[in-house]
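Exercise 7.
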Amino acid sequence: MRVGTVTGLGLLLAVMGAACAHAADWKKAETGTQPSLLSEFRFGFSSQAPWGSQYRDGSANLTGEILFAKPFTASDLFTSYFIPRPHVGGSLNFDGETSFAYAGLSWTVDITPSLFVEGSLGGAFHDNNKRPFASRTEQALGCSPLFREAGSVGVRLSANWSVMATVERLSASSSCSDSRGLTNVGARVGYSF
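Solution. The predicted structure, written as tokens, is:
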């Protein structure tokens, strides 16, 4: 692993750990009338472009995401599904390939009390544009920022813990030349506050 990757990984873990600790302290201090700012923290791993020929040996990412509370609530369950939760997150590649940070909105729909699906839309800034001529082993992503779309299927294990399978796609949507996009597939664990 390169020094930059180790440093980035350490910073990502430190920031997310501090955010969780702050949220836990805030949750303890809040009263029944004060809403929580944070909704959920997620972390996991993903495989970068698992079906791309340039990643035959596999390239792994550490992922993390913070979801904020809905900005307002609806009185009925059906309407509440249309109110998204804002999120921020990042994906750090272990092999020095493409890493990125992202932000956007997530919509979660309960299928059963324990099974849910989720869709996310937003944007991402990546480090691949620092290397305009990608090597044979790298996917050329062109400009930054890119659009980010993601879908997840998850299971709630308890009131606080869940696991989910996620597919995410970074693409320029024809706004850049030489962008083939990037698809990652992974699994994450979530902790709801």
